[in-house]
Amino acid sequence: MSAETLFGITFYLAVPFWALMILAPGWSWTRRIVSSPWIAAPPLAVYTVLALRELGRLWTVVSDPALGALRDLLGSPVGAAAIWAHLIAFDLFVGRWIYLDARERGVHHALLAPVLVLTILLSPFGLLAYLLVRAARRRTATPRLHGCE
Question: What is the pTM of this model?
Answer without folding.
Answer: 0.87
